[in-house]
Design a protein that fits this description.
- Its EC number is 3.2.1.28.
- With 666 residues, this protein is mostly helical.
- Helix content is 41%, strand content 9%.
- The protein is built from 22 helices and 21 strands.
- β13 and β14 form a beta hairpin.
- α10 runs antiparallel to α11, α10 runs parallel beside α12 and α10 crosses α22.
- The longest helix has 25 residues.
- The two termini are 41 Å apart.
């Protein structure tokens, strides 16, 4: 960590033990939680370089030193229950709940506290020290948890978004000409009322009793009334959760959720979702994987700059015109985007950026990496099992946990892309992979930030990010481009070779614009490669062609992957790329509509081999709700309706009138 970092670093060593029996794992963990202190982010030398001050920016601050210290202690206390320790180990290993995520999402009851829970647990444990921990221990543990904890997710409550207008058809949805598609879009529009959340209590006491990671508000100086990042609904940002077991906000999911909210005309809610993530950056220096304390060990694909772009751009105006942008919002967001960018560009043993030499040149590209050394609390039992069957020394378990956490940071958890032998989670080596998708997303981030500085009248800062984007494209061509495959490929550091896994990630550079638009023959070759890859199936694009039983492998088709590849093919703008994009639009709409007609549900993932089939595999059952699925369909229906033809599709199997009774939980 840089010595001039204007932040508080909490470093807490933990020593617990595990020998394959009932004891917790033996590893030493240094978990760094980055908390900003009271000084302005603009004054932070680590976050904002002096030349960026040419752009007039809001002075942003989150908390003063006293509050930051209290927050630090609060998070450390919560980690003793939700991230580590004997109580977590016993609850998970006794299998009190089928899903490991269940317990770590349970808030402590109002009449109890962290210290009270831990003290009484030690008393309960002491009463069993001379007894075998069998059925009686499990029963007592169940009673203990029931006495001290509320149901999972109960610290957040459903709410209608403040800008949602009951009975009103949003203008974009009104323009959908096909009645079936328009009715479907309206049903998805109504689901924002099911997926929107706010904290159940405004009390600061609640935050000391829950794993929910409540962000701190960003304050502006000197005039708070001019704070464009201020919370707009009773001092809160309305959050939108994916659905099912995912009871909190998630980083990269939010990009497609925001897109869907904008289609629904819910601009205030969309901006609140983005502001919530910006608050995380202001406090921690990065966006955590999701809104729980146990997600502070990792981030997720950095889509925040694209979210800022879509909520700050005014529709119907050419983006080259300054009037197309909310300049005040960009001024407020840019220091935070810079700060997140520096998080991703940190080098070193546990840094996301890494130098690679090729052809006499040295390039910098990025990877997913973690430095926790512990099982994921929300998948605690699963991670301990994976380590136990990995055939590695117990002393190496912490390294395996780091690789698993890094894979979770990728958003593709789990997938053969990260496996050394392409089949088992125990062989995960994520930090050795230079992923095409991550570098494409960071390329897009560099272009976005360059554009923001351009419209704000800061050509120096804009040029710096343009240069970074150009350098990344050069590095991607040198390291990731595979001439034999006719596309980009993940690069394996250990072997200095391209991955043999065929993945939808291989085509992300089309979406980010990391290609030469004048080289039509190369673009046609990329499209030909995609067609011949085996990824394009009857029900959509499968994540990979590998069959491993993992959820980000074949045959699952994920909504964000469909969106990015469709948008990338449209951006390539050749005859063959547009034709394939149109075909994929048609496929995805039909797949989603058929599944909807049969179930009245939107799913997290689908089966690419069966149009309308539901996805499967991985650590948990397929979830429904579902934030990014709804966002992708709403975007496609309103953006590409000219490419959609339902003539060969049967009439609705059931009326949409029955679909408003969508359940809150999966």
């Amino acid at each position: 960590m840089s010595s001039n970092c204007n932040c508080i670093c909490i470093e807490e060593d933990r020593m617990v033990s595990y020998n394959g029996s009932s004891r917790a794992p033996t590893v030493s963990l240094s978990l760094l939680l980055i908390l900003s202190v009271g000084n302005s982010l603009v004054a932070s030398r680590r976050s904002i370089r002096p030349h960026l001050l040419q752009t007039r920016s809001m002075s942003l601050r989150t908390v003063n030193g006293a509050i930051a210290s209290s927050r630090k202690q609060q998070l450390q206390q919560l980690q003793r229950i939700y991230c580590q320790g004997e109580l977590l180990h016993e609850v998970q290993m006794q299998e009190l709940f089928t899903d490991s995520k269940h317990f770590v999402d349970m808030p402590i009851k109002a009449q109890s506290s962290v210290s009270n829970v831990l003290t009484q647990f030690q008393e309960l444990k002491a009463s069993f020290d001379t007894k075998p921990k069998g059925a009686e221990w499990k029963a007592q543990l169940e009673t203990f948890v029931e006495r001290h904890f509320d149901p999972p997710g109960s610290e957040l409550v459903p709410i209608a978004p403040p800008d949602y207008k009951e009975g009103v058809v949003p203008p974009k949805i009104m323009k959908i000409r096909d009645e079936r598609l328009r009715d479907w879009a309206m049903e998805l529009h109504k689901l924002w009322n099911v997926l929107a959340r706010v904290p159940a209590s405004a009390s600061s006491d609640q935050t000391s009793r829950t794993s929910f990671l409540r962000s701190l508000p960003i304050l502006s100086a000197p005039d708070a009334s001019q704070n464009v990042l201020a919370r707009q609904f009773n001092g809160e940002n309305v959050l939108v959760v994916p659905g099912g077991r995912f009871r909190e906000s998630y980083y990269w999911d939010s990009y497609w959720i925001v897109q869907g909210l904008l289609v629904s005309g819910l601009h205030q809610t969309a901006r609140g979702v983005v502001n919530h993530l910006l608050e995380y950056v202001a406090e921690f220096g990065f966006v955590p994987n999701g809104g729980r304390v146990y997600y502070l060990t990792r981030s997720q694909p950095p889509m925040l700059s694209d979210m800022v772009r879509v909520v700050s751009k005014i529709e119907g105006v050419n983006e080259t015109d300054n009037s197309a942008w909310d300049l005040q919002y960009l001024q407020a967001a840019l220091p935070l985007l810079e700060r997140e960018y520096e998080f991703w560009m940190q080098r070193g043993l546990h840094g996301h950026a890494i130098e690679i030499s090729s052809g006499g040149e040295t390039f910098v590209l990025n990877r997913y990496v973690a430095h926790s050394g512990m099982p994921r609390p929300e998948s605690y039992r699963e991670d301990l099992y994976t380590a136990s069957v990995s055939h590695i020394n117990e002393s190496d378990y912490s390294s395996l946990y780091n690789e698993i956490i890094a894979a979770a940071e990728s958003g593709w958890d789990f997938c053969s892309r990260w496996f050394d032998d392409f089949s088992t989670l125990a062989a995960t080596r994520t930090s050795q992979v230079i992923p095409v998708d991550l570098n494409s997303i960071l390329h897009r981030m560099e272009l976005n930030v360059a554009k923001f500085y351009e419209v704000l009248g800061n050509p120096v800062a804009s040029a710096r990010f343009q240069d970074a984007a150009k350098a990344r494209v050069k590095a991607m061509d040198a390291i990731l481009w595979s001439e034999p495959d006719g596309c980009w490929k993940d690069y394996i550091l250990e072997s200095s070779m391209h991955s043999s896994v065929v993945s939808g990630s291989d085509y992300f550079p089309l979406w980010s614009g990391a290609f030469d638009a004048s080289n039509s023959s190369r673009l046609d070759r990329i499209v030909t490669s995609l067609k011949a890859s085996g990824l394009v199936q009857e029900g959509g694009i499968q994540s990979t062609t590998s069959i491993t039983g993992q959820q980000w492998d074949a045959p699952n088709a994920w909504p964000p992957l469909q969106d990015i590849i469709i948008e990338g093919l449209q951006a390539a703008d050749t005859v063959s790329s547009r034709a394939l994009a149109n075909r994929l639009v048609q496929t995805w709409v039909k797949a989603g509509l058929i599944a909807w007609q049969e179930t009245c549900l939107m799913f997290e993932k689908y089966n690419a081999l069966q149009i309308g089939g539901v996805g499967d595999g991985g650590e948990y059952a397929s979830q429904f709700g579902f934030g990014w699925s709804n966002g992708v369909i709403l975007t496609v229906l309103t953006k590409y309706q000219e490419q959609i033809n339902l003539d060969d599709l049967a009439e609705n199997a059931r009326s949409n009138d029955t679909c408003h009774k969508f359940p809150n939980e999966g």
